[in-house]
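Re-running the complex after MR caught last week's input typo. The corrected sequence lines follow. Everything else is unchanged.
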Amino acid sequence: MNLIKKPVTGMKDVLPEEARLRNYVMDVIRKTYAAYGFQQIETPAVEHLDNLNSKQGGENEKLIFKILKRGEKLKLDEVKEAADLTEEGLRYDLTVPLVRFYSAHQAELPAPFKALQMGPVWRADRPQKGRFRQFVQCDIDILGDATNLAEIELILATTKALHNLGFSGFEVRIGDRRLLKAMAAYAGFAEQDYDEVFIILDKMDKIGQDGVQKELTDAGFGEEAAKRYLSLYRELENRPGAEGIRYLAGTLAEHLEAGVADNLIEIMDLVEKSRTADFALVFDPTLVRGMSYYTGTIFEIAMPEFGASAGGGGRYDRMVGKFTGLDVPACGFSIGFERILLLLTERGFRVPTAGSRCAVLIEKGASPDAVHAVMKEAEARREAGDQVLVVRMNKNKKFQKEQLAAEGYQEIREVFRD
Amino acid sequence: MNLIKKPVTGMKDVLPEEARLRNYVMDVIRKTYAAYGFQQIETPAVEHLDNLNSKQGGENEKLIFKILKRGEKLKLDEVKEAADLTEEGLRYDLTVPLVRFYSAHQAELPAPFKALQMGPVWRADRPQKGRFRQFVQCDIDILGDATNLAEIELILATTKALHNLGFSGFEVRIGDRRLLKAMAAYAGFAEQDYDEVFIILDKMDKIGQDGVQKELTDAGFGEEAAKRYLSLYRELENRPGAEGIRYLAGTLAEHLEAGVADNLIEIMDLVEKSRTADFALVFDPTLVRGMSYYTGTIFEIAMPEFGASAGGGGRYDRMVGKFTGLDVPACGFSIGFERILLLLTERGFRVPTAGSRCAVLIEKGASPDAVHAVMKEAEARREAGDQVLVVRMNKNKKFQKEQLAAEGYQEIREVFRD
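Corrected-run output:
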């Protein structure tokens, strides 16, 4: 009887070198966020399917690993459809579990609550290079703060974590779903068409303004609306940052609730003045962010070395209330943990190590006294912060020593039998 | 539409204070084992059911959370039994995945390989107080070392981890499955009855020697065998440690392979001489350890404050070979992570914190300049290692301040609107 050696489809084993890097990155992230008063929490890997299927997960709801009912609950004879077989599944993100967690434990938590979550999620995506069916997400969220202090702290903390991991010169793009909607309203699109319009708008950096305008008309939207829409973007070209936001505030006055523009400008201004990390905070009127639960500011991290986004988030003020009846404003920022890891690996990043590393090879048959002397000294050195590997000497000692040297052991000692 | 607020049956949410403790314990364990040259690895939560059901998991195989097949693989019309619906499940321990991992990656790993695993496992146990269906296991294993260097390093490292977590005065009980079998053979039990005999023997600390003898005869074993068996244990009463082992070596000579006793004495002697942690290593001829895969030495941690075992392990030289065709000796030691956590919590253990903790409450409407001044100072203090929480001031400020003080913020500052 043989074990199947490969991991299950789309999931991967983590070898020692990668595990070291993963632990290091998690440690840096955890310490950085702790300095900002974020508190880590954990939720189970398994979640109620009713919660997972609550229409907040978007496409992810199609990718759930569902768990077969057990014992008396599994009635094979009465099964009509797959849904009769399951009631629990693996979480596909950390947001649905966070909302459940908060609604269950609110009374025990500070208000506002600054939460850090870092843990695996599972999605039955089509396997592809570099994307796995189990991967770590890393989210910070502030629940119970309606003011833009939340956005400011989220951006400062997230960029500081990236800074502490050695990243610089990246961009944080910021926008606001309310601005996005006001722009669409100004152009004359109907509200039910906004999502479709935004999907096309999202391609701006690939297909440009003319491309977006053409796709909009190709999709059946009126030429006038498309033109009017794109005219806004053309006006913004020469009005970067706060100037552009002020231009929109003036132009969209009829469609935009008061304070949205000032709020965004204030966030950008305060982050700019307070930040210690090296990054640019850029107003991006084309930023969409897929999830429909966002209600206000939205953000995204763009790394020069990395085509896709390396993180993102935004404000989702109505989600907690919708599911719990409690009106709780909320705002979150997620780091693309696996992408950050990939970037560090591509850069040849090495986890810094403290202390020296020594390997002692002991030949089979070495006297107990000799072994004892090794152990005694090893314990003392470990106590002092060194790493001491004591192992049996292999027959192919040369290869063993080469391998240990490659692993980073600076000192290799040998103890022979008498 | 409402979320189900409670976690799924038998699993739990981890609140900030517990999460801090969990992270702290993991960190201490990881650093301790790293000093001994153990390298952390990770395997996916999801494993092939064929592997999980390979008869090494004992009773745990009945407790698997199975994952429903997806898409074309799920043929509801053709389902005859539950097994047709699944091919993957959540891992119930870290040993089966380790063996799979090793067989897949052996060429990339050092030999001997010292592995650390720390991660969640899932068992659909009947929910009961303090036992959960998702819990963390923490195992170290040495693969590829047939000598007792493996046992010595495993015991030194595990006890050092407990020492570094503040435990002292505990016991590590050690035995050997081969001694256990030789004792049963000497008494005259048939080999196919050993497991049943050992299950009764395992109750020794509860029912005593007379109790064991009675249960053996009640179970239908010959009175002579039971008497002869217990006579060995009576002889051992006045022969502690090495003396008892030597007595067995002499008495059981016909049934015991050469070297077993010397091996055990040498392990005990070398650990005793080399250890820096405060614990007693005790030969325990009644130690059984449930899993059938053990082939040699077995160990268990007994904490005075804690009735049950707080960890255990042993040598399982044939398991890797059985499943991979490669003959690889192996030995492992597992810490009862959740039990250790429970003990620390019961003792009122507090995670040590570095730096001071300051909370700044900002009233709604405070000027951007005032917020900026707070942020600037906060960033500087965080840089210096302090924890600075900046949050919106609540209407019920008094309660907010009390709560923050209870959370451990030594300094609370308030910033008002002009």
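None of the earlier attempt is carried over here. Chain A is about 40% helix and 20% strand. Residues 16-346 of chain A form a domain with the BirA Bifunctional Protein; domain 2 fold (CATH 3.30.930.10).
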